[in-house]
Every structure is written in structure tokens, then in C-alpha cells.
């Protein structure tokens, strides 16, 4: 008898999502298909430790993430970081999810290359691989070229690099780069456009454009 397979890999996608845009959504959808993820859980950051206070409140960023993902049955939103009183650190979120989901479930932390390049500044960053795999999406303007990586990241890329099929075979520990259709969309640019009174259409889902307008965000 074949051993019964447990639930498939769960993608975890953290970010400020200030606001969530089509670059984020396309990354998650590509990851779901290309990496064989069962679902992708979006986790908006509460008070991001690495950056300035977001332009929108946690409640608004959470509401926009919910609107943006509502029509995709493969997506879900986790409010825990926004609800938490203390700063969000990814390692603490991974500890929580590992406790919640058990030791066997493959977890795949999704990142764009720009976020990956900043990994050595994250709290307890080398321990992330004890809790999850990492999958790194291409992003216009950034490269994962090993020759140009910081030595610690280059070493890690060399030892942990794997292909998507490996993700379902272990709960954590691998690094998998993947390509997505390049979308040079950023939340920074969206906030700047809004500030300048320019249209946001076709950069974000219509429901999010509408939410930003109704709640007068980023003015
Ligand atoms: P900001 O411009 O405010 O820095 P952002 O658009 O980079 O925001 P974040 O919420 O900081 O969005 O990003 C969350 C994650 O999504 C990060 O891992 C980032 O690398 C990734 N990401 C964001 N936009 C894109 C994009 N257009 N293509 C690929 N990855 C992206």
C-alpha cells in the first residue's frame, strides 16, 4: 500500500503590502503553480522592523489584502502579525506556524530577490531554514547572480539550492529560485502616483484601487 501523502506545501508570503499590488499577486500565483503549493498564505506585517512606518494602517493593509485575494481559492490571509502588539519578525511567525501546522508540513517562504538580498539583516536569519524552505522570485532591477551576492548569501545559495520537486519531500531547508513574468510594479511607486494625483488602474486589483480612493489613503 502506498503511504498516504500529507497536505502539500504551504506558501507563506509576508510583506508590508502597502498596498498589495499585481506584482505580489502574480508572484503568489506563479509560486502556487510552479512550486506545486497547495495554498499561499499572505501575511501582512504589523510594524515592520526593517523600514519606516507604513503609509496605511495595519487594518487598512489587511483589508486590502483580503479584497485582493478574495476571488482566489488558493489564497488566504493571516492577520496574526497585524493583530500582534509587538514588532513582526519572520522567524517568530515561522515558529508560530510550525507549532500550529506540525513538524511534517512543507512550508515555503516566498520572497522577491530584493527581499532575499536583505536577508542577512533579518533576526536569526540562518535559522529560517530550520522552519521553512525559501523560494525566491525574480524581480526587475535585481539579480541573484552568485558572483555579486554577499559571501554569506552566496554560500547559502550554493549549499541549499534545489529544484521545485524537492519542496514536497522535506518540511524545510531548501532554497528554490523561480522566474515570474517581470512586473516592475512597486508599492513605493504606487504611493508616489497616488500622491501626485495619478491613476492607479491596472497596477492593483480594481477592488483595492476603489478601497484606496474611498478611504483616502496615501494622499
Ligand atoms: P515597497 O515599494 O513599499 O518597498 P514592495 O512593492 O517591494 O513595497 P513589499 O510589501 O515590500 O512590496 O514586498 C513583499 C514581497 O513581495 C517582497 O518579498 C518583495 O520582494 C516582493 N515583491 C514586491 N513586488 C514585487 C514585484 N513586482 N516582483 C517580484 N517580487 C515583488
CATH superfamily name? Answer: HUPs
Shape: globular
What is the β-strand count? 6
**Biggest pleated-sheet summary:** 6 strands, parallel
Q: Helical amount among residues, as a percent range?
A: 25-40%
State which percent range the strand residues make up: 5-15%
The CATH architecture would be: 3-Layer(aba) Sandwich
| Count of helix runs | 9
Your description of this structure?
With 219 residues, this protein is of the alpha/beta class. The protein has one domain: HUPs (Rossmann fold, 3-Layer(aba) Sandwich), CATH 3.40.50. Helices cover 36% and strands 14% of the residues. The chain contains 9 helices and 6 strands; from the N terminus they run βαβαβααβααβαβαα. A 6-stranded parallel β-sheet has the order 3-2-1-4-5-6. β5, α7 and β6 form a beta-alpha-beta unit. α2 packs antiparallel against α9. The longest helix is centred in the first third of the chain and has 13 residues. It is globular, with a radius of gyration of 17 Å. The model has no long low-confidence stretch (mean pLDDT 94). The structure holds adenosine-5'-triphosphate (ATP). The site of adenosine-5'-triphosphate (ATP) has 18 residues, from α1, β4, α5 and α8.
Q: What labels describe this entry?
A:
219 residues, alpha/beta, Rossmann fold, six-stranded parallel β-sheet, 9 helices, 36% helix, globular, binds adenosine-5'-triphosphate
Element layout with pairings:
Elements: E1 10-15, H1 22-34, E2 39-44, H2 58-69, E3 75-77, H3 80-83, H4 90-101, E4 107-112, H5 113-117, H6 128-131, E5 133-137, H7 151-160, E6 175-178, H8 187-195, H9 206-214
Parallel strand pairs: 1-2, 1-4, 2-3, 4-5, 5-6
Helix pairs in contact: 2-9
This protein binds adenosine-5'-triphosphate (ATP).
